[in-house]
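As described in the Methods, two query proteins were run sequentially through the folding procedure within a single session, without resetting any intermediate state between them. The first query and its resulting structure tokens are shown here.
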Amino acid sequence: MAQQQNGGPMVEGKVVVVTGAGGGIGRDIALALAAEGARVVVNDIGTSTSGEGQDAGPAQQVVEEIRAAGGQAVASTDSVAESLAAGRIVQCALDTFGRIDGVVNNAGILRDRFFHKMSLDEWDAVLKVHLYGSYYMSRAAASHFKEQESGAFVHMTSTSGLIGNFGQANYSAAKLALVALSKSIALDMQKFHVRSNCIAPFAWSRMIGSIPTDTPEQQARVAKIQQMTPAKIAPLAVYLLSDAAREVNAQVFAVRNNEIFLMSQPRPLRSVHQGGGWTPQDIAQHAMPALRSSFVPMERSGDVFSWDPV
């Protein structure tokens, strides 16, 4: 659990909902929040990483861990992928603790498939949990945040969306859309002192536990990824939900072991201008050759974050 530093607990008295908190990153965030004084709604429907099966155990187990350490928590097993169920998750915070101060949109599933083989169900299922789920949760909390003129959202995005990856069109689309959703929430609700930020986590979890380990090289890569424990993500999430982060809004961070990154957001790179406008032929002959040196390379996350975690 997170250690107390620099005086009192960072989120003393706050009530925070953490979705997908039965294991992995969500669990560590829930534990860290509780250690820093928050009362936590531990939400997890207890399915596999692909969304199958259901088990109330994981959420309750994390609640017991928090209580054993002297913290306050309650389990929720509703699904974020349905609006009414998401509403019940927020209501659980209100019924149990009397208020809501923060939401961590962490719940997720994977249905990896190369795009030309992806089924409609594989697309829908992932969008429903990651994007719709984050919208449903945020929308359910937003009315309460507006009324009390305070509140904070932390959404889990991914470099698969920010940069790119193979076989994850559904996941990547949802995760990049989540960045735009977060920015919109931040812009629309800043006048009510509501903040919305994203974290792209690098961490060993069930989500990436399916990486093959058939060769020594693959085994070495997985060993390095395993150093990046979910506990490394939790401190930034706790900070972003605290009053100490009151000036931090609409940002995208990444956490990779002991590194914290501020990620860029799309801005113009360069332009070309032609007084009389452009024909397709002019574009081919002049515009594209002028712009080509600034083209964004066809990289995936591993190409950009190419060094070993430290």
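Immediately afterward, the second query was submitted; its sequence and tokens are:
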Amino acid sequence: MPLIAETCVARHTGDRKEQQDRVALFAHPTETGTLLAVLADGMGGHSGGAMAAEQVTIKAKQNFEAFQPAHETGRHLLQSIVDEAHVVIKLTRFTSEQDPHSTAVVFLMQPGKAAWAHCGDSRLYHFRGREPCFRTQDHSLVGEMLRKGRLDEAGALNHPQRNVLLSCLGSEREPRVEYGETDTLMAGDSFLLCSDGLWSYFSDDELGLVVDNHRPREAAQLLIDLARSRAGGYGDNISLALIKLSDPKSSPRPAFIG
């Protein structure tokens, strides 16, 4: 049965002087029911991070528009976006004075299935109703400490080195990229892509509750407002993309039909 996807993308500069996050959502030019969401959190001094994040979104748009599902897999598309963005960001180091790097989360939805790739500490969440089904694991020092049992979730949120990344695009070392997929999409599923400027202030359960109880635009505004309040004047850039799936019979105002 076809599902309806209602979507929203949003950003806020937070308490920073410059917005270095980038986020975008694209519908495929010819393939019905196929969309791509991409989010990148840039790093690298004044304008350097913005440049790196912009390269991720540009490469995502270019490769997605050329994507032919009959001849290539979703995994191949995702890998090409991340790998090529990494190379482009590295090359910009030779033509500028900045040292650009970026995280990346790329989410591909096709009829009946979804796939994603991520590098760094920007996240993708999959909720079914309000219940968390899946969350990407951060490629960060704190994330590694969590996986090894040296730190709990509460300690991770306040750890002084929580922003230290172990992998990102544009570094000399080859990036660590992880992939995931599901072929079981159903009404009530939601996918949230977000930078650490958002997720740092919420538990998984809190995010699931807000996403489930509100339409995407309302959920995005509420999450940003809460993150800004909890940051206490020290908030990072915020970016998010939200995709909510529903039954066509119960959705009054569809944003995307797939």
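The chain has a mean pLDDT of 91. We note this only descriptively and draw no conclusion about the first query from it.
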